[in-house]
Specification:
heterodimer; A: alpha/beta; Rossmann fold; six-stranded mixed sheet; 14 strands; elongated; B: 371 residues; alpha/beta; 4 strands; ABC_transporter_ATP-binding (chain A)
């Protein structure tokens, strides 16, 4: 388990970037890290990767403080992508494998496998600068994966990818998670996070405002009743809990509390009930609620 | 250590595979061979052909290794033709009134003097007067090799300047490439800052050393091929070995400076600007070294050959231009080693703290004092 405990970081005299960030990611868990720009995602990930020193708090891996040797077994994709522009694809991936401690043969094998897996076979001999942005991103991912890391820390891995590339990347990450690797990634694409992640952490202004499994977050927001009544007289919902909104020209009642049976009864009396159901809040809604 | 060697290996492979490496090396070799051979090509000839008509060969003692080839002609007319056709440099025509020397245009002044002296000598001896040549002896320093030494020193200034300036520049470009592209952030999760910087300096140093060795070999090869090597002063092997050692020291110092300064900026365009203090120091060293090649025993050259980092360029030039006591070279070397060690520690500190701070230029003060 990767445990992040009470990280605090201040840049310069005034800018407090992290103000007590804690969360944990278990083996094989896919952890989505979401938050507004500047909320502290990147700073947290950089501290985990040792690129930045924390002022307070610590990062523990398998129960003990994380050190350089263990970190070499991590895979990292920083927010600002970086590759040697003039180095060839296969050579570049292999080089990073060697830096992470693979043997020459092992590094070449790992690079070849990833190149095939990520669909870069035709570009092996090309310099990175000659690749499209999407393909550069694939090389970047390969660099993070080449040493078969124990933990994956990816800052915005999906940004700038087309939908097919998103699916391919998601598949690769899920495969690694199934292999027991904790995967942390940040993203602004909340539907994607919702679809892929076992658990989610929401950070706002340097503090974790919510974290847990998607279900836990949902239940903390509470369930939501959605009722649509055709040909109802206006004002039918007066006195009922919840808000009445207009969606596509029809009145919709959204209720988060109150007795559902009582609401159903009132709806039936008001007109023809077209829709009555419990609705799951989306991560976007949870996020808006948590950050607000 | 392994990480450092991997980084060094990448640097060497990346540089050696570029077209620029070979072109640069080829241009330098051509330049050095050209300069080595230039005195031979453009200087005065050291062998003459003299035609003889009714006259004797003269015992000519030219300066150094001048050789004279004599050719006898049957009459003046053929000798004249040979002079005008350029077959002989001059023709000596014997007659009752004495010997006339014919040449195409005014005679080569050195040749004229040699012939005149030899002829006078021959006449005096013919008159039965015994002459003994002056015996010349230097009771001061041995200056026999002075000219060769100073020529070699000038070449050395040129070579050292190109390599000691050029190679740290590659270090600076490499540092900024990694910082600007943020690749350094990924690298630092698998290698430590000192491994990355050390590997880069080591790798590019090897590239610089390859350049130096090839250029020196080309220069020495050309000297041997053209016969200039006979003028080499004693202890030539030591001089060449010293050049290599001084290059390593000078490179190590300036590479450390270049890395520290370059780590302050994030864009290649800013490199030139941030390196200004270093390039100024290098140009100053170059100026003094140039002067030292001419005046190796002057006070300025002597002092500068002790002060790091100037000594890295001035001392090898001074030691090449004039025989220099070994203890002076060793003392200067020891001072330079200390300076290199101090600069490497300092540069490592600056680099480690500045290289992850991308964006605006980092001020040296911010990274030196803090923490």
């Amino acid at each position: 388990m990767l445990q992040i405990t009470d990280l605090r970081k201040t840049f310069g005299a005034a800018k407090r970037a992290l103000d007590g960030v804690s969360f944990a990611v278990r083996q094989g868990e896919m952890f989505g890290f979401v938050g507004a720009n500047g909320a502290g995602k990147t700073t947290t990930m950089r501290i985990v990767m040792g690129v930045l020193q924390t002022d307070e708090g610590e990062v523990r891996w398998k129960g003990s403080p994380l050190d350089f040797t263990e970190r070499r077994r991590f895979g990292y994709m920083p927010e600002e992508r970086g590759l040697y522009q003039k180095m060839k694809v296969a050579e570049q991936i292999g080089y990073f494998g060697r830096l992470h401690g693979l043997s020459p043969v092992g590094a070449r094998k790992a690079a070849d496998e990833l190149i095939e897996r990520l669909g870069l076979t035709e570009r092996v001999g090309d310099a990175v600068e000659a690749l499209s942005l999407g393909n550069q991103q694939r090389v970047q991912l390969a660099v993070a994966l080449v040493h078969d890391p124990d933990v994956l820390v990816l800052d915005e891995p999906f940004s700038g990818l087309d939908p097919l590339a998103v699916d391919a990347l998601a598949e690769v990450l899920q495969e690694r998670a199934r292999g027991g690797v904790p995967v942390i990634f940040s993203s602004h694409q909340l539907e994607l996070v919702e679809r892929l992640c076992d658990s989610v952490g929401i950070i706002s202004a340097g503090q974790m405002v919510a974290s847990g499994t998607v279900d836990e977050l949902r239940s903390s927001v509470g369930r939501r009743l959605r009722v649509v009544v055709a040909e109802a007289k206006s004002g039918w919902a007066d006195g009922l809990p919840g808000d009445l909104r207009v969606e596509n020209g029809r009145e919709v009642l959204i209720a988060t509390d109150g007795d559902d049976q009582h609401i159903l009864h009132a709806a039936v009396q008001a007109g023809r009930v077209e829709h009555f159901g419990v609705e799951q809040p989306t991560l976007t809604e949870i996020f808006r609620g948590a950050v607000a | 250590m392994n990480g450092m060697l991997l980084v060094a290996g990448r640097e060497i492979r990346t540089q050696v595979r570029t077209k620029g490496f070979f072109v640069g090396l080829a241009v330098t070799v051509v330049l050095i061979v050209g300069i080595t051979l230039a005195p031979k090509l453009f200087g005065g000839p050291d062998s003459y052909t003299i035609g003889l008509v009714n006259s004797q060969e003269l015992a000519v003692h030219g300066g150094g290794d001048t050789e004279i080839e004599w050719r006898t002609f049957s009459d003046e007319a053929t000798a004249r033709r040979a002079v005008l056709d350029g077959d002989v440099d001059a023709a000596m025509i014997g007659g009752t009134a004495g010997i006339r020397v014919l040449s195409d245009g005014e005679i080569d002044s050195e040749l004229g003097l040699m012939l005149q002296a030899a002829h006078r000598e021959a006449q005096i001896q013919a008159a039965g007067v015994r002459t003994t040549p002056l015996s010349m002896e230097s009771i001061g320093a041995d200056t026999r090799y002075e000219e060769t030494r100073s020529q070699m020193a000038f070449m050395l200034v040129l070579i050292l300047f190109m390599l000691v300036v050029g190679t740290p520049m590659m270090v600076a470009m490499g540092v900024v490439e990694e910082k600007g592209s943020r690749i350094v952030e990924i690298l630092f999760t698998s290698v430590r800052p000192w491994q990355l910087l050390g590997g880069k300096v080591l790798g590019l140093g090897v590239v610089g050393l390859i350049n130096l060795v090839v250029v020196l070999a080309a220069g020495l090869g050309a000297a041997f091929a053209s016969g200039l090597a006979v003028d080499f002063p004693p202890g030539m092997a030591g001089i060449v070995a010293g050049i290599v050692v001084w290059f390593v020291l000078g490179y190590a110092f300036f590479a450390a400076v270049a890395a520290a300064l370059a780590s302050l900026v994030s864009r290649q365009e800013e490199v030139g600007n941030v390196l200004t203090p270093m390039t100024m120091t290098m140009f100053a060293s170059y100026g003094v070294a140039f002067f030292a090649a001419k005046e190796p025993t002057s006070l300025v050259a002597t002092i500068a050959s002790y002060v790091p980092p100037f000594s890295s360029m001035v001392m090898p030039v001074r030691a090449t231009a004039a025989a220099t006591p070994a203890w002076e070279i060793l003392l200067s070397g020891a001072l330079m080693v200390v300076a290199v060690a101090a600069m490497v520690l300092f540069a490592g500190r600056v680099y480690e703290r500045a290289v992850l701070r991308t964006g605006a230029r980092v001020r040296l003060r911010e990274v030196v004092g803090s923490r």
